[in-house]
Amino acid sequence: MFYPIFIELQDRRVLVIGGGAVAERKVDSLLDAGANVTIVSPSATHRLMELARSGRVTLHQRRFEPSDLAGASLAISATDDPSTQKEVAAAAASKNILVNTVDKPDLCDFIVPSILRRGEITVAISTSGNSPALAAELRKRFDGVLTDAMARTARVLGAVRNEVHERYPDSEKRKRIFETIIDSGIVDWISNCDDDAAIARVRQMIDGDS
Question: What's the pTM?
Fold first, then answer.
């Protein structure tokens, strides 16, 4: 059983071993998260080469060396070479660096779920490494459930969150306030107003609960 977690990777060094299509997808998602990405692979896709030339990633075109892990927060082994997979996993374990080995749950400290995003909302779906294909199918099904209105609701609630925390130090009071807002049907009525009007209405509810 894996422990689900969302991790802040902004400006943190992440090592990716491998330069194929799978590595390319991993690199794209890591860059989206703001990670400082280093790639080690004898060969690389055209896109990875372009990312390296533009300075968005660091690329070492050679085989993996244990010293590549120095300073890394995470490692992702996206190579299909079994010997390299095992070498990376062993080296990472010796340095207490968490590693994900693509399609090899037995060589993973963490797995990367299938992700669905709508604005500020992120849904992560995992089958604990048993079936990435099923996770992808479940993602497609949830895609029709997670609406733009839900994403807007998250954005609006985020806009008033600090205000509520400053005004109400009691956590139970804050919980009741946000439950009242959610129970008001905000996901339904937010579709009929812009963000400014929605925030104003939410603030009225907060004042009414004071």
Answer: 0.81
